Structures
1.
Amino acid sequence: MLIRCRAWWVLLLGLISFQVSAKEEVVFCVTFKDKGTQSIESARLSLSTRSLARRDRQKIGLTFSDIPIFQPYVEEISSLCGVHLLYTSKWLNACIVSTPDSSIFEQLINTSFISSITPIGNISTQLSTQSNKAKITGNASYYGNAWTQTNLVRGDCLHDHGFRGQNMLIAVLDDGFYYVNSQPAFDSAFSNGRIVDTRNFVLGGTDVYSDFHTHGTEVFSTISANLPNTFVGAAPAAQFALYVTEDTQHEWPIEMYNMVAAMERADSIGADVISSSTGYNTFDAPYQNQNITAAQMDGKTTVAAIGVNTAAQKGILVVMTAGNEGSGGLLTPGDADSAITVGNVDASKIPAGNSGYGPNAAAIIKPDICALGQPGFVITTAQTPFGVSGTSIATPQVAGFAACLWQGLLSKTNSEIKQVILKTSSLYPTPQMPQLGYGIPNFCNAYLTEDIPQILTETTSLVFPNPFSTHLTLPISKGELLQASLYDATGKLTGTFLKKGATLELNTEALTSGIYFCKIQGSRGIQSIKLIKY
């Protein structure tokens, strides 16, 4: 969705009235009406082989939003005296620039290719004084302090099946990743070259480690940390891109544009999953007039939501925080249609009082699911994990395990992975309270349900009773050769059916209550059936 043009006289009144200190510049979003003479083929040259492969795998074609921004337009804007180019966005068809003199844009009032100019933040012109820093089968003991949050969503089952995020690329958007390049918990990712890209969209450049903000470090640890018997994250073998998009000094609209630019970069390098634990609803002075209204929280209107939905259209699985506003509602882009929006619960699966919830303005259920964040454990500058509360901590857990699930189900599209996660969550398809959405995901069930090819026959779909108590029966047709086994939710074999006349039967008296999967193998294929024991 393109940002619509606003009346020029309104824009210019707003631009001229902005006052900044001698050490600051105003940041503007300048959107363009078109992309010049470029064809769709130019898009292919701007994307990595990995990015194109991700799209090809999901049968996603190139679109107008993939065409690079028309460089002559950018050059004309950035050539104006006092205008500094920060970055561009092909998805928004815009450039983000700063200037100490707002009135300079009066020169552009009759420029044919410009659609709109919007002030979105301020930026300091002082140089930063911060310096660079020098650069599996698991159980409760193995995961250490990460066990409760891992086991709550049965992420350990994915690891037990060998899916720890290998060859999956996760982009994390946050405020900074201080100490990630020197903390032992991140050694395996850093020293093995699995942090493949970094970019600081707030300060510029590629340094994301030098500032003293650790929120991003906390978030990243829930995915990537790898200290067996102390703390093991959700996808400890994945590849990562780390992007600073959040300015902790202010709450300004530019941060949403930073998010879009970061998501574009994630797309261009071939990221599979994007995780962000930042969100927005109101802004600091002088940008209160751009506060997000209730009507704009419809999943498709805010700049941040547009970015999320565009990323999803490119085949990326996007996981976003619901925010910590409680009954005050969601933060954008947690309202986005395409996002897996995450709330937080305690270890008893009770929703946290500050976990934001909807539905969004389009009546779509948000959050979609919840994970542990009351508290969830993290690890940062010290080697001792500690508890932190909030949806910020629940969100990256879901992103990490979703990457592991997708690794195991690589033939599926991003939207199919999202649906698999939702359909195997505890309250699907009937949410019982808005704070929980579809409940707590069960990544083990998600994998076991989808991994076995579904070749349905009239015979093999008749396992009964379901729900069951003391026994299970499977009728077989004359001459049909079948084998049937029962597995619990962890993937452990709990019994093999025995042939009795024209049926296969299994005594289940000794089994505990819960969810099971019956795997049926025959000459015509394989089927997996979800069963429930009282």
2.
Amino acid sequence: ATRGDGIQGEDVTANLRTIRSLPLRLNPPQGQDLPQRLVVHGEVYMPKVAFERLNADREAQDESLFANPRNAAAGSLRQLDPAITASRALDLFIYSGRLGELKPVSHSQTLLMASQMGFRTSPYVKLCKGIDAVWEQVEAWYEAAVGFAFAIDGIVIKVDNLRQQEELGFTAKTPRWAIAYKFPAEQAITRVRGVTLQVGRTGAVTPVAELEPVFLAGSRVARATLHNAEELRRKDVRIGDWVVIQKAGEIIPEVVRSLPDKREGTESVYAYPETCLTCGTALVPDPSGPIIRCPNEVCSDRVEAGLIHFVGRDALDIDGLGEALIQQLLKAGLISGPADLFSLTSEQLLGLERMGERSSDKLMAELARKKCEVPLDRFLHALGIRHVGKGVAQLLVEAFPSLDDLRAAEREQLESVRGIGRQIAESVVAYFGSQSTQTLLARFVEVGLTIRPATARPAAGPLSGQSFLLTGSLTAMSRPEAGKQIEALGGSVKGTISKTLDYVIVGEKPGSKLQKAQSLGLKVLDETEFLSLLAECNRSEFDVSDRPETER
């Protein structure tokens, strides 16, 4: 499967089978049996030679060219016809995995075992002792990268010890035990034709440089962000200037600096307007930073940006509904806000240009499916509340499991949630306190949108009222997986030792938490006892508090 949004991806099994470097039969690693179950994570890529050959073939057939190997690989892997995927000469590296009973103790050992089983791993893996050795290797590979068979934009640096990886854990998006070092961005020089303003969903007004098109990092670039009015002044970018541009994070083109030495005297300073060029509302400075905003919530640019965000992959993830179709729907007057999407009809869609019956039916089915049950955290993120991204939304629903709970929360209650500060709390309170929000939420109810509360733990279950702490490495499953099983049975998982805990689950190499648990007289279960407890709970829905003390 592809990684998708981190929770749900696409099944690409048939296409993966066409990649020759992916073994269809595994070999036992040296001196051990194959595990009963294993999971490996890999990167599908297109070698440089294959990319050049593919684009040459497409050019000969008068077809559009792929911008870069990354886009070509992604498009090739998602083909409906595996024969097309097979013709694209894709390759694959395995870069991590969970190997079950093999029990590797380090990342490097995991890769070695995966290689012994027949998986291809990158030849560019180096175990370094100390940060100086890391920098030395980074510099060596940066110099050598031009000669690699595949394109890279940086190097991933990881903690090798798997136990330390588990202790470090993850943020909302990334592991704390790994960091990507990106090579200096490729830059290009071009000329500024003009400056336009872009209004985002929160009203932030971003100046954008309109450029003479130039090829940069695999794609044609004709626009680049200037970030905000203050940056525009600080960099002294003028219309007609020659400028240096690069892709920020390898994605978004940005203006790095102007080149005053190249000026001819015909350049002009951009006059920042006092009113929104879209709706005419007076622009206001944001007191918290260098951003200028359009405060008009019904500004057409804000509405469009909000709708695009609402249907996006990290929000409601409505397949088949992208920017172009949103613009069509707005232009036709069929929608004016996100709730209107769920009252669209097939007849309305079929009246749009380039909308066929098949596409209309698929979109209507997708909207009906999404309307039935939207997870609360995704809904919160989709609303576009300032300062509430994907990670913050997850923190909020853990503390306030229903929309009604969150709407009723006061600032002090919100600030008591770990990871939620005053700025976020005030933003949430202000959002749910506004009349426009009340109207929008009522409209969602009117169209039948069902929001699923964050009920991670059932109100009543075999482990209801029981608290657990997990320490050490488990062999049958990861600690997060064990935690999910506990919560599914009604229990709660804690992160710190205290005398209020009911159980401490101990895996291999538990560290100091075991000693502290014993000193507090807490009940300790090893992995075998824990698995037996889960099995019995799943089998008979009994309450562990009713069991005799000796059995507990």
3.
Amino acid sequence: MIHSIQTSRFEPADAIPETTLARSDQPSTMANLVTLEQGLYALEIGVSPGMPGQLSSLQVPAVHVSALRNERERNAEIIGASGHGDSWLDRDGGTVIVKSPAGGAHVLVTAYGLPAQAVFVPDIHVRRLDRSRSNGAAPRSSDPAGFPADEPEEIRSEIVLHVERLGDRRFPGEGWVGNRGKKLRIEAFSIRPVDTLLARDIEFKALGPKGRQTPWVTDAKLCGTRGQGLPLTGFAIRLAPHLAERFDVVYQGAFFESGVAGPHRNGELCIPPITDDPLEAINVRLTRRYHR
């Protein structure tokens, strides 16, 4: 629940000697400490204000999201982050998926700007992902024979898109992800479950101009290209063979001129009726099948 999230603002620079603050090569910083109860969350980071610039290899404004280690070594897991357990976002912001352990954890969101410039942490919207029915809807019931109701159990996922001019963007796999209607081409994508299934349990392929296709890819590896100006013109997703009878994957694609194609499922090609029409958004749903 959003009201359970507490944030406090402080300036790490307060602890730095004044002589260090005067150096022209040191970025200005401001941070928010986000306290999370146990659970899975999407931290949606807004656009960073401030003048653009370059400090050594750091392009500012930028935002750094990191997990703070507590005394019991139970720190939050930033899913899809580097081996250092952190994530960097550029001035456009983005979404970071965080898994908080039993007992809760803290995440530090730090904004970086040019030296001697006022820096503000962008808006942070925290959304809980593992209480999809906490809005008052009743939980899935069973019929008199004890079988679950017809509504399938949804498996949460994370999707990474490489979008022209925007680079890599990470999204929770809920509804449409991408930029529908903005005509920004998706050049690569990956998908990974964040519960129940493993990354290697999902396989996917990409289609490009002139009918080219990639092999099936797994383990959340990026499928497609970066920086070559080659849009995706279709895709397909399936479960690993040993899971195909127990789970379903259903997906749609939104294309520049063709609009929405699909839904398709379980390895079917999602392609537009107009040849080589670039892909701009996708909608993926993973579910567990129920058998009577």
